[in-house]
Task: structure prediction
Amino acid sequence: MNEYALDIMRLGGQGYCCAQIMLLLALEMQGVENPGLVRAMTGLCDGGGVRHCTCGILTGGACVLGYYAGKGRPDEQAHDVLPVMLEALTDWFTETVGNRFGGITCEAIVPDDTPNPTVCGGMIGECFEEIMRILVDYGFDPSQEPA
Result:
């Protein structure tokens, strides 16, 4: 069990899906609420609603990186390191999860058509830890709202 496990169980118990939990962990770390953004993350749940597509943990994780390093206002630019950070996350996920389950789709990871709290919850924790490592490695403070 990692340091995020209890928060993941709490959020899952409140009915949030994998992609939403990824974002909520980041928002809660900052003490920020953004219900509209959390609602939007629903579109990534369960492989974007198509189980044979990419797992929402990876796509949700990519959104978390974008939340910190992407363009948010007309007068700003995405950080130059965002593509490298996204590649690092995708490579890690493909290597870690893809090798473990034979693919990175919901269908490959949880073949019985139902998200599995044990499998998915554990992967959310692992992936969120990796995202935190990537952010810190590239000079971001995950506890601070993006500037």
